[in-house]
Amino acid sequence: MKSKAQSGAGKGTEKRTSEGRFAYEGLDRVIHERARLSVLTSLITNPKGLAFGDLKQLCALTDGNLNRHLRVLEEGNMVEIVKKTDRNRSLTICRITASGRARYMEYLTTLEQVVRDAAKGAKEPSTSNRFQGLAPSQA
Amino acid sequence: MKSKAQSGAGKGTEKRTSEGRFAYEGLDRVIHERARLSVLTSLITNPKGLAFGDLKQLCALTDGNLNRHLRVLEEGNMVEIVKKTDRNRSLTICRITASGRARYMEYLTTLEQVVRDAAKGAKEPSTSNRFQGLAPSQA
Questions:
Q1: How many CB atoms are closer than 10 A to CB A109?
Q2: pTM (two decimals)
Q3: Are B126 and A101 in contact (CB < 8 Å)?
Q4: pLDDT by residue for chain A (139 residues), tens digit each?
Q5: Cβ-nearest to A41 among B54, B114, B131
Q6: Of A43, A89, A101, B64, which alpha carbon lies 20 to 30 A from B10's?
Q7: B73 to chain A, minimum CA–CA distance in Å?
Q8: Are A122 and B39 spatial neighbours (Cβ–Cβ below 8 Å)?
């Protein structure tokens, strides 16, 4: 990241060129990956935990994929996996940890920012005139 | 994806086990990657286009990374890149295409669903009791 605040090349094209304004560094890569976002959102809405089979269904993942992503989340201390026995049946229960919850909530703050930014952009008309931006909007 | 609607293992752990409820298949991988989400959100809020240098700054990316991601988006017909000359200076302008815009808006619909789901989950108290979920909440 260079610290020059305004690049010569961009002069006049847009006013919002502040460094990293759209970098979204809060989009934690461990959480942002689609399958893991899916797993974590399932678990945050089911704070008491979910059986492996249910989680698999909710996220539409295969056993192998769910296992792989759970391992990443477990290593990151974001979920805990516990084997339980219920009427002689063995059950694997997955649950979000307190630190997983905190990290997810932080991620969510940035995600909400993306949605807000995008909604703002969505309002702008889909102009068919090409690259008028080269002319300063406020001369 | 198997079609069994309720797995035996999950019986009673949770009521919301509908297949793929949290799969978020609308999270288009081309868009979801953090740097590309950053690029596209910059471009959607600047529909007239952005100079390469400005885009680079807004997304806090290096030349190499921005080029790499722009290529992916260009191949997907989501952005167009045009060289212009402005007072003998050469400028590279990046702009979101109509189809890129449409695809991004579709992605956004799912992203908003994630935020809504997560917000719902966030409201639930961070219970310290472990795995009470094994007892059916509505017996």
A1: 9
A2: 0.78
A3: yes
A4: 444 444 444 444 444 568 899 999 999 999 999 999 999 999 999 999 999 999 999 999 999 999 999 999 999 999 999 998 888 888 999 999 999 999 999 999 999 999 999 998 877 655 444 444 444 444 3
A5: B114
A6: A101
A7: 17
A8: no
